[in-house]
Amino acid sequence: MKPAKIEELPLLLTASQAARLLGIHRTTVYTLVEEGKLRAVRPLRELRFPRDAVEQFVRDMPSTKGAAR
Q: What whole-number distance in Å separates Cα of residue 23 and Cα of residue 5?
């Protein structure tokens, strides 16, 4: 069952969870980290993505208002 609200997700997301939430490929999540566009932490061996960092990434995305279709 999928969470109804973002607040129901874990505080630290896996790359796959972040990718699903953003609607992008998991590899793209790592690319965004390398480009400094998405914040990640490494609590143990694997990168994790703070839920608030994913939300901030979405807020910082350029607006498509007035963009050609």
A: 16
